[in-house]
Amino acid sequence: MRCILVGIKTKEKKEKELKQSLSELEGLVEAVNGVTLGKLYQKKDVPDPSTFIGKGKIKQLKELAEGINADTIVFDADLTPVQITNIENITNTNVLDRTDLILQIFSQRAKTKQAKLQVELATLEHELPRIYGQKGKSLSRIGGGMRTKGAGEKIGEIKVRTIKDRISRIKKELEKIKKQRYQQRKWRNKDINVLKVSLVGYTNAGKSTLLKKLTKRDTFISDQLFATLDTKTSYITFPDIGKKVLITDTVGFVKNMPKELMDAFMATLEELEDADLILHVIDVSDENWTEKMKTVEEILKKINVHEKPVVVVLNKIDKLIPSEEYLENTDHGMLTGNRETVIVSTEKGWNMEKLHNILKKYALKKVIAYAGG
What we know:
Blueprint (H helix, E strand, L loop, with lengths): L1 E8 L5 H17 L3 E9 L11 H14 L3 E4 L5 H11 L2 E4 H12 L3 H21 L3 H6 L6 H41 L4 E8 L5 H9 L16 E7 L4 E7 L9 H6 L1 H4 L7 E7 L5 H14 L7 E6 L24 E4 L8 H21 L1
Parallel strand pairs: 1-2, 1-3, 3-4, 5-7, 5-8, 8-9, 9-10
Antiparallel strand pairs: 6-7
Helix pairs in contact: 1-4, 4-5, 5-7
């Protein structure tokens, strides 16, 4: 996939924000083994309803695509069916919007039955409005193809009914899985000697690496956005105090997470509801880490778990300082809202013992709180 990335700078979006967003979009392209050949953006208060970027820019985009032999154009926004069709017809390329791209990644990475069903549900819910809005090109994206008006309308009706039926069946299957997971969590909740911890963070913050380091158990790790999608739970045992810590990894967040994906992956985030402690993992080597921290905090508020105890784990410090000795003079507490903060390098193993001690402290707190209640 040889791509050109496209975005617009509106009154609400500063140029710096646009460049950061396009940079993240480039990471998403890499996650599906694509390559970004160029980027195009413009200042425009309101997206053009026909081509998103307007006649002049769409002509420039066509020439750019032909000149560098790009086969795909990815827009840093959600497009309407009309916009997709018009842009594809003018540029003779495949056109994806931001949600299309994320869904492609999720489709490739989903391993468990639950994750696969969630991805399929999100994809169908994203495509359904396109069928209502268009009977031609968008149908071919889902398997249609006839272009005559009458046949197109008939195919559209069949597609809508088929997709709605499939959505209904998927939701029923997910509900069964949800009940099974609830029973599993209910069983865990009975044991006061088990501290339940959930890892959250922006995608590629290093959560999977942290899970492996803390529990010393293998888990898939890759330096890519959305490298892992499925919920993973492992544990640490503290024999000296007779406690166990269950640690659950969750799917990474991104800014402006598509609604379909937020809805579809809410089951994954349900693990957070029963967590005794949340470890918010942050890539401190990322120059935009404070903004990404706020994005995660906003999502935690949306799912009503923001008042749970949180320890901020500032990861990848080895990219900023040469050795572990410098950690003593490194303080980011003020930048994390004076929350309990630990600075680590999961790659080098720096400060892992300190994080273990924090988990042990919260495990003891749970028993004390239970006894007091």
